């Protein structure tokens, strides 16, 4: 079997790939271990030009090499903070209003992609297959192709692909789509993302796209497909159950004093609908006086991208909203929203999910949303909690047992919270079973294996 080379903006550390950390890192590392290979990308460090130019730092773990490079400040600003996170992220999440376009940042984005590609070339072998991840690295294959690299290269987009009318807001939209066409396989989280890409190819790039995903455009042919990212449900169930007996979780349980628990966990990001969620919870308390004092919303929201201005604003807005709502409904011994601006161990999150009666996952737009899937996997099958899920999360296509909401509809979301809290056991079990069937069908291993089979060009049985 040919070696696998994974390229992503951030490379997991060898410890993050061990089971206790869980998640995507474990899934991708599994594939790397099977075929041997390299995981290449940014180390997360901002370094001097001299250090950046020294070549990748290599760490080995069995047949897998972790190869990382630092980024000079200017590259970090233009490629990561600038074009990736102040332009691509908002527009791909349908938030043109928050996007900031700067030509120099775009030039920096392409320059860093080319620079990273040249660093990788030295580590490549002729029959390696290369799997590139996410929006930071759209031009990566094009840079490799210009240097004469003929290997199979695939790309998976973790976030939504916007409809053409939205994408047109990015001045170099055509260059970006042309860059995507330099891959052999381009994978999306949902059919709606793939169709949006096909629409652009047909209407704006004078290309052709067949329903089964064969694309011809910009003088290239490629395949598109949908690969629904998932979780390993059994591993999560086990983590959640084991954690239940640990002190931190017992302490939380005790502090709730018999109150019901609603859990939410998101990176602190405006795409996750946190302000709307807090307002829906406020509306619920307003309309349901009998629940005041009897239910607590725990919102865990570790900060990310804190140096992008829009992220500073969302943080301020949330602090204001949480303070305002708590001011209105707290008692001497009761705080309705516990808003925790920090990162927790994964086992703790899974155990808290298991302890809770409702999982509130209401992004305004999300490629998939793994928290929704983790929430289901962590439940006690004999007494499962209810998932209240935004229709705009990719996960909504599969988690059909969830109570679906439009997160902009504050009243509708508040009514869903009320229904979820009062739901009889039989209905909760039935919804849980429906979701678990989908979770098992598209687990993380299936996502990875299907993508790699297409990238390797394996014939379907
Ligand atoms: C992107 C796309 C897509 C969160 N807080 C803590 C913590 N987490 C973990 C969650 C989950 C992961 O981070 C977040 O994944 P999501 O899928 O929910 O969202 P994004 O970070 O925006 O991810 C998304 C995903 O890529 C995969 O393709 O689903 O749509 O936006 O696993 O549990 N983990 C720990 N402590 C925390 O405080 N340990």
UniProtKB/TrEMBL annotation:
One of its GO terms (biological process) is trehalose biosynthetic process. It is an enzyme of class 2 (transferase). InterPro entries: Glyco_trans_20, Trehalose_OtsA. Probably involved in the osmoprotection via the biosynthesis of trehalose. Catalyzes the transfer of glucose from UDP-alpha-D-glucose (UDP-Glc) to D-glucose 6-phosphate (Glc-6-P) to form trehalose-6-phosphate. Acts with retention of the anomeric configuration of the UDP-sugar donor. It catalyses: D-glucose 6-phosphate + UDP-alpha-D-glucose = alpha,alpha-trehalose 6-phosphate + UDP + H(+). The lineage of its organism: Bacteria, Pseudomonadati, Pseudomonadota, Betaproteobacteria, Burkholderiales. Belongs to the glycosyltransferase 20 family. This is Trehalose-6-phosphate synthase. The keyword Glycoprotein does not apply. It comes from Caballeronia insecticola.
């Amino acid at each position: 079997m040919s070696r696998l080379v994974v390229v992503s903006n951030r490379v997991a550390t060898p410890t993050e790939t061990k089971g206790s950390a869980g998640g995507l890192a474990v899934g991708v590392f599994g594939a790397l271990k099977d075929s041997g290979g390299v995981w290449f990308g940014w180390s997360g460090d901002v370094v001097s030009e001299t250090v950046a130019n020294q070549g990748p730092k290599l760490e080995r773990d069995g047949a897998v090499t972790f190869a990382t490079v630092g980024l000079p400040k200017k590259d970090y600003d233009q490629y990561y903070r600038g074009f990736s996170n102040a332009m691509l992220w908002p527009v791909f999440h349908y938030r043109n209003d928050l996007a900031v376009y700067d030509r120099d940042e775009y030039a920096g984005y392409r320059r860093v992609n080319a620079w990273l590609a040249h660093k990788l070339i030295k580590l490549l072998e002729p029959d390696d297959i290369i799997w590139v991840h996410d929006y930071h690295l759209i031009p990566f294959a094009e840079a490799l192709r210009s240097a004469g690299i003929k290997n199979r290269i695939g790309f998976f987009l973790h976030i939504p692909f916007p409809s053409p009318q939205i994408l047109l807001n990015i001045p170099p939209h055509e260059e970006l789509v042309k860059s995507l066409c330099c891959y052999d396989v381009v994978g999306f989280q949902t059919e709606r993302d793939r169709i949006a890409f096909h629409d652009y190819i047909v209407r704006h790039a004078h290309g052709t796209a067949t329903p089964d995903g064969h694309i011809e455009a910009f003088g290239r042919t490629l395949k598109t497909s949908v690969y629904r990212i998932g979780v390993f449900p059994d591993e999560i169930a086990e983590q959640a159950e084991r954690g239940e007996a640990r002190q931190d979780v017992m302490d939380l349980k005790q502090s709730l004093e018999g109150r019901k628990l609603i859990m939410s966990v998101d990176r602190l990001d405006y795409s996750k609908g946190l302000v709307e969620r807090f307002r829906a919870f406020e509306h619920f308390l307003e309309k349901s006086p009998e629940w005041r004092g009897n239910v607590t919303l725990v919102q865990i929201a570790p900060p990310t991208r804190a140096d992008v201005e829009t992220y500073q604003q969302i943080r301020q807005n949330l602090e204001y909203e949480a303070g305002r709502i708590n001011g209105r409904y707290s008692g001497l011994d009761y705080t309705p929203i516990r808003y925790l601006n920090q990162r927790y161990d994964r086992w703790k999150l899974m155990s808290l999910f298991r302890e809770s009666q409702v999982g509130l996952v209401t992004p305004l737009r999300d490629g998939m949303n793994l928290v929704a899937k983790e929430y289901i996997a962590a439940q006690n099958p004999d007494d499962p909690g209810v998932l209240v899920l935004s229709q705009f999360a990719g996960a909504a296509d599969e988690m059909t047992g969830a109570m679906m909401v439009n997160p902009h509809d504050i009243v509708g979301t508040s009514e869903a919270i009320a229904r979820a809290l009062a739901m009889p056991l039989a209905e909760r079990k039935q919804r849980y079973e429906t979701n678990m069937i989908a979770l098992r069908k598209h687990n993380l291993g299936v996502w990875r294996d299907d993508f790699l089979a297409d990238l390797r060009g394996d014939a379907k049985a």
